[in-house]
Amino acid sequence: VECKTGRGNTRMASAGGDEEQRMQALSEQFPNAEHGELRRFCRARPHSVEQAADMYEKHLQWRANDGSTTNLASAASAVSPKFVQRGGVALDGTALFYIVGAAYNPEVGPEQ
Predict the structure, then answer these.
(1) What pLDDT shows up at residue 17?
(2) Alpha-carbon separation of residue 47 from 18, 52, 60, 75, 95 (angstroms)
(3) Which of 24, 52, 62, 75 has its CA 20 to 30 A from that of 14?
(4) pLDDT over 80 at 35, yes or no
(5) CA–CA separation, 46 vs 18, rounded Å?
């Protein structure tokens, strides 16, 4: 099943289906995206290609602004290495991190 989006793109609106079919639909909509990155979003929303695509679009918007490489590097440098430690690699190849939750202070805002 296909549906038109507001930007003239066609998306597959699926209520499930095979992961490879969903990946094909996402790859057609985002031809420059890394395959592994699209697969994360495909698996995060396994019942809807449209929801996976919307989620990926929001991710791209975030990465272009607040989640830019510069902003993330700046945020990472502000965190004590005793608070967050790298802990290996997940099954999908992404990094694992251990966070010392007891050191978290909810009174400190995001800009502090």
Answers:
(1) 54
(2) 10, 9, 21, 34, 26
(3) 62
(4) yes
(5) 9
